[in-house]
Amino acid sequence: MPVPSRLFTLYKEIRSDRLLWILLATSAARSLGRGLFLGLTTLYFTRMLGVPIQTVGTVLFVASIAGAASSYLGGHFADRASARLLIGGAFFVQAVGLGGYAFVPDATPRSLIWLTALAALAEGAAWFGGTATQAAVARGFSGAARVRAQALWRTVANAGIAAGSGLAAIPLALDTQLAYRVSLVVAAAAYLVAGVIGLRLPRSADAGIAGDDPEADPAETVRAGTTGTPQPSVSPWRNPRFIVLGLGSAMMVMNFAVTDVAHPQWVSAHTAAPPALVSALLLINTGVVVALQVPSSRLTRDIPSAGRMMLWSGLGFLVAGVLAWAAAKFSVTGAVVCMVLAATVHALGEVVSSSATWALSFGLTPRDRAGAYQGFQSFAVSVGSMAAPLVITNTALRFGLPGWLVLGGVLALGCLTATLATRGARPADEVGGSQSVF
């Protein structure tokens, strides 16, 4: 079937599913704003407000702490409140935080306190809403449809971020404070649009709805006891298998920072490749994700297949690290070829590991405690994201080949650890949650 026909068929399929359609619409609006402010924020802080780069790092670190705390908090509320209010409200709060950046006047201590509060508000709302969204996916879809929905969500998000990053070229070219401030307000407006769309989510995504359906299979919502009496699923903190998955995810999620931190710094400081290659590598990553994230979800339709693909991802991360190191040993052409290969192999590992993680996370999540389990998973991921820049700067960027091998080893170990969670596993809705790993 020709590509346009496949796209049209996909569009009709998505449009017929109200929950999926609204989730993707919120993703499109939100990611357009995110792409715009990601391209501007650091330069706005340093060039327009005069904030020292070290202070910017402190502001972002405080914001990441708020994000980690909010990720788990979002899961707590996702099991107790309306998904539409949580997700829509989170987008509105992010709009306030990002729009507030435009009204910070300077780099005085009072302004820096205000800036830190806004950054923490925006980052906290982002993780809170993200957890609530994943809980809605876990409740609103079943089996492989969950992974496919998440893959579509990420594909739309990457396309939106790419478009927003392109729009950021306008204020960057104008390079005036007014252009930056107006662009940040526009980014905030995109989040407001996402919030309005999010308020239209159907009730099927809300906590408790699946259990209220008289025709629903009790195995899909609660764990059946030995007498057949429905019992609530156990907490994720008492589920050894899900804890193992969280540990693996915390290590594995550092692969995203390789694209954002390791590759740009390695190209500029350790290779003969031109600095413009950094933009090309980011485009390669985005292109691979947009093109292959949905198809890769077909490789991880169940828990066993997700475990197998996770191992392949770990191997890919190791190979990509060696290729990046090799780029430092060649002249311009060889360095460019090595980095392009490294970025491509790494992106493939990223795509497959993402699909595998969703399959495991959703597959091991009981529907009646979707918020708690996805909150736990988001918390683990946020901690790994916080640690990633520190790990990267003290491995690959500091020690060359040994450092790249250590970094690749951490990512591969994360994949292997997550794979341990698949040993003898069955979907949580079938067994209720506290499966032993060994």
TrEMBL record:
Gene3D superfamilies: MFS general substrate transporter like domains (1.20.1250.20)
Location(s) in or outside the cell: Cell membrane
Keywords attached to this entry: Cell membrane, Membrane, Transmembrane, Transmembrane helix, Transport
Chief subcellular location: membrane
InterPro entries: MFS, MFS_trans_sf, MFS_Transporters
Transmembrane segments: 20-45, 51-73, 85-105, 111-130, 151-172, 178-199, 242-263, 275-294, 306-328, 372-392, 404-421
Acetylation listed as a keyword: no
Biased composition (Polar residues): 224-234
Membrane topology per record: Multi-pass membrane protein
UniProt keyword Cell membrane, yes or no: yes
Residue span of region Disordered: 208-234
Name this polypeptide is given: MFS family permease
Organism of this sequence: Brooklawnia cerclae
